[in-house]
Specification:
Blueprint (H helix, E strand, L loop, with lengths): L1 H20 L5 H23 L5 H25 L1
């Protein structure tokens, strides 16, 4: 059950990040991948800043922030 919740949070976070950064999502699989990678990145960023997020909403916020940062970094690499 935790794995399914992890995938759902990843999909929603990826979709939110896609809408924030480009104005559209990336499809279900693309959103899941962006959200999952973003959750790891967000967890590292929040940990480095000494922030902690608890619960479902905290996980979603952490994953979304990480996914936005990931998409921003990808856009910088694409421009170079």
């Amino acid at each position: 059950m935790n794995f399914i919740l992890f995938l759902i949070i990843g999909a929603v976070a990826g979709w939110l990040a896609g809408n924030i950064m480009k104005g559209r999502g990336f499809g279900v699989l693309g959103n899941i991948v962006v959200g999952i990678v973003g959750s790891f990145l967000g967890g590292m960023l929040f940990g480095a800043l000494g922030l902690k997020a608890f619960g479902l909403i905290g996980s979603l916020i952490t994953a979304t922030v990480g996914a936005v940062v990931l998409l921003y970094l990808i856009s910088l690499v694409k421009k170079a």
